[in-house]
Design a protein that fits this description.
Blueprint (H helix, E strand, L loop, with lengths): L2 E10 L2 E11 L2 E6 L6 H8 L7 E6 L2 E2 L3 H5 L2 E4 L11 H11 L4 H14 L15 H12 L6 E5 L7 H15 L3 E6 L2 H7 L2 E6 L2 E7 H6 L5 E7 L3 H7 L1 E7 L3 E7 L9 E2 L4 H13 L5
Parallel strand pairs: 3-8, 3-9, 6-7, 7-8
Antiparallel strand pairs: 1-2, 1-4, 4-5, 9-10, 11-13, 11-14, 12-13
Helix pairs in contact: 3-4, 5-6
């Protein structure tokens, strides 16, 4: 499946939430990254046919976004905020949603147990939805999003509120499902996306800052990432002069990882950049007016 997004716009009043965005998405895991308010949820709702764009075009293997019925037949969507009837059991929720989706009985009777086993909820199938933990609710959300055996799975901020262990388990589940499918997952946590996605798009304030491989994003910071070890009394000077990525205090000094357009003074150690570094370099350039 290839999703082609061309000059896509979404305007609310006088505010452009998406501003002429163009990029494509193929099979596998694709990450959509950006700060809160970047436009990620708006874009995903458009792709899920829940919101109409103000301009531009989206096609799924040549099928236009306007063919809503056709597109919905092969899309699964898990929004950031979702809920189930709390007094329904996990199994009842799945059967109810299957009925709403007009999935034939002979299909859902085979598919629902298989999905619940895949998301590790089969043993909890009689548990009330209102009694599920945050991680279990997310897994149930994935199961319902896969009820129609979609070719495209769209997942918005799936790990919000989950602990690190649950986050890793959830992304492993998404990766397992990706296979020959297209999975689009959004997050403001770049390290999560870097761990599971080969390709990524970066949005900020409705604009597309980058679209390409995770490796190409990391290269945006090549030769610009350094580690400095300085006395604690000098850390404020470093923070004033450079774009700080992280810092770690020790007994008498502090180790600071920075972005810099030139080699810092002292004894800097050059670092191999990560996709997170490339993402932060994009934001640094944006703040300094380098990205127009």
């Amino acid at each position: 499946m290839e999703i082609q997004i061309t000059s896509l716009k979404k305007v609310y009043g006088s505010r452009a939430v998406l501003d002429s965005i163009t990029f494509s998405v193929g099979n596998g895991m694709f990450g959509l990254v950006g700060r809160n308010g970047a436009g990620k949820t708006t874009l995903m709702r458009i792709l899920a046919t829940l919101s109409r764009p103000s301009g531009g075009q989206v096609t799924f293997d040549g099928i236009p976004l306007e063919d809503t019925k056709k597109i919905r037949s092969f899309i699964g969507y898990l929004p950031q905020e979702f809920s189930f009837y709390p007094d329904m059991s996990v199994l009842e929720v799945m059967r109810y949603l299957a009925a709403l989706s007009d999935i034939p009985g002979e299909v859902w009777r085979e598919r629902i147990p298989r999905l619940l086993q895949q998301v590790n909820l089969w043993d909890d199938r009689t548990k009330k939805a209102g009694k599920l933990s945050g991680g279990m609710k997310r897994r149930l959300g994935i199961a319902q999003a896969l009820l129609n055996d979609p070719q495209v799975l769209i997942v918005d901020e799936p790990t919000a509120g989950l602990d690190p262990e649950e986050r890793l388990r959830f992304y492993a589940l998404l990766d397992e499902f990706s296979g020959s499918r297209t999975v689009i997952v959004s997050s403001h946590i770049m390290s999560d996306i870097e761990a599971v996605c080969e390709n990524v798009a970066v949005l900020d304030a409705g604009r597309l800052l980058f679209a390409g491989t995770v490796g190409a994003l990391a290269k945006r910071a090549e030769g610009k990432v350094f580690e400095l070890t300085v006395p604690k009394r000098e850390q404020e000077t470093v923070k004033r002069d450079y774009y700080v990525l992280s810092s770690q205090s020790h007994a008498s000094d502090v180790r600071i990882r920075v972005l810099a357009g030139h080699i810092p003074a002292g004894r800097p150690v050059s670092c191999v950049p990560t996709a997170w570094d490339g993402y932060m370099e994009l934001l640094r350039q944006l703040e300094e007016g380098v990205v127009k």
